[in-house]
Design brief:
alpha+beta; 3-stranded antiparallel β-sheet; 5 helices
C-alpha cells in the first residue's frame, strides 16, 4: 500500500457525550501552508492588535483541517425563566431529559467552529501543537 499511514485523525469526546467526534486531516502530514494561519497585524510586543481577527485566522486553519464532525451547539439551550425558589436538582434532571435540547452544529464553517465547545477547540489545537513538538 503506497502513501502515508494515518492520513486522518479521529478525535472522540466521551466526556462530552457518547456521540461527539471530529474527523480531521492529520496535520503532521500537511504542508506548512495548510496549517499556518494568515498574517494578522501585530503590536510592538508581537501580540495581535485584534484578538477576534487572530482567533478567526486560527479557525480558518481548523476549517481546512476538519473533514467531518458530530458536534452539538451547547449554547442552544431552552430559555429558562426561574423563580426565586427553583430547585436546582429538579431543573437539572428536567433539562437533561429534554430530547434534542442541543441541535448539531451544521456544516464546518469558521462561524460554527467558533460555536464549538472549548474542549473540542483545545483538542484540535493540541493536534496542531504536535506538529511543532512531535514528542
Amino acid at each position: 500500500m503506497a502513501g502515508y499511514t494515518n492520513p486522518f485523525v479521529l478525535l472522540t469526546f466521551p466526556e462530552l457525550g457518547d456521540d461527539v467526534s471530529v474527523l480531521m486531516r492529520n496535520p503532521q502530514l500537511l504542508a506548512p501552508s495548510e496549517i499556518s494561519p494568515r498574517d494578522v497585524p501585530l503590536d510592538d510586543r508581537g501580540q495581535p492588535l485584534d484578538q477576534a481577527d487572530a482567533q478567526r485566522a486560527m479557525y480558518e486553519v481548523f476549517e481546512r483541517l476538519i473533514v467531518a464532525w458530530k458536534v452539538y451547539d451547547g449554547a442552544a439551550t431552552t430559555s429558562l425563566e426561574l423563580g426565586d425558589d427553583a430547585d436546582p436538582v429538579a431543573l437539572y434532571e428536567s433539562l437533561n431529559a429534554a430530547p434534542d435540547a442541543q441541535p448539531r452544529l451544521g456544516s464546518i464553517t469558521v462561524d460554527n467552529i467558533g460555536r464549538a465547545p472549548l474542549r473540542i477547540i483545545n483538542r484540535i489545537g493540541e493536534e496542531l501543537g504536535r506538529v511543532a513538538d512531535p514528542q
